[in-house]
Amino acid sequence: MKHVSTQHQLYGWLLLLPATLFLLAFTYYPTLATLAKSFFSQGTAIRPAEFVGLENYTFMLEDDVFWRVAWNNVIYALFTIPISIALALMMAVWVNSRLKFKSLARMSFFLPTMLPMIAVANIWLFFYTPEIGLIDQVTSIFGAESQNWLGDPDTVLGCIIVITIWKEAGFFMIFYLAALQTLSPELEEAARLEGASRWYYFRRVMFPLLMPTTLFVLINAIINSFKLVDHLFILTKGGPDNASSLLLYYIYEVAFSFLDQAYASTLTVILLAILAIIAIGQFVFLDKKVHYQ
User: Fold this and answer.
1) Least confident of 123-127, 178-182, 246-250, 283-287
2) Which of 127, 164, 171, 246 is deepest in the core (most CB within 10 A)?
3) CA separation for the pair 96, 105 (Å, rounded)
4) From CA 98, how far away is CA 102, in angstroms rounded?
5) What residue ranges are annotated as transmembrane (predicted)?
6) Residue 177 in contact with residue 106, Cβ under 8 Å?
7) What is the predicted pLDDT for the residue at 292?
8) So where are the chain's domains?
């Protein structure tokens, strides 16, 4: 075994030092500080913070708004994640085929991803505005009444889901498109010679080979489903009656509107725990089905 000199070891550690410092400063320290703060009360200039143990967590379990927001987030994730990934895969397969104006199609699908979040929210605000919005203008042609899409608790969360899918599908498409271009064309030619249909080739050959990309996209989609703030801030402010509020936006409200950073830290710890459990579950159960090349 070749001996590695101390100088080479030191050089390697120095290369890792900048990334390590950034991780410590912006990931590990904030996480530990947030965890510690969740066990204290909210301090003021007159009354300093006191250790309260699990009191903040007990309050969270009794918080009706938290459970409403958590349920909203579950519905939001269950719709945005699978639909965004399915659309991304369909678009990638389509623009990877022998298609005229292929570059134009790719650019059109990816364009929503390049737009800033605030710009996207304002664009869709024009669509959803009652009476003068584009959707009401079109539906009024067929005699439909005006609908307050963002002011109705029954429709507001669906409106946010549509915006997210529209913006994220093109982003995920890029990863699938890059993965498709690494597949050997000989696989498809061999499948055709064997008389396999396109669906059979996709189900038995293409999709299994795309599982590493699917795992990567799935992790990103789950993370994105828990971090929406910008659209809600512009479109609904979490209303009406918290019908469109999601967990991260509720944390933002608690920390910066209600000025209760201790309770916000508690909610943040729960959010991090949920994401950690989901990520571990994905790697434990899905990694067995991934075909690495």
Assistant:
1) 283-287
2) 246
3) 10
4) 8
5) 12-29, 74-95, 107-127, 155-180, 201-223, 262-286
6) yes
7) 53
8) 55-289
User: What is 124-193 written as a DSSP string?
Assistant: HHHHHSTTTSHHHHHHHHTTPPP--TTT-TTTHHHHHHHHHHHHHHHHHHHHHHHHHTTS-HHHHHHHHH
Nearest to 119 by CA among 86, 182, 54, 163: 163
Question: Tell me: the pLDDT tens digits for 35-70?
Answer: 999 999 887 777 888 889 899 999 999 999 999 999
- State the Cα–Cα distance between residues 69 and 54, nearest whole angstrom: 21
Please give the pLDDT value at position 49: 83
* Domain 55-289 belongs in CATH node 1.10.3720.10: yes
Number of neighbouring beta carbons within 10 Å of residue 100: 6
Start-to-end CA span in the chain (Å):
29
C-alpha span between 135 and 124 (Å, rounded): 10
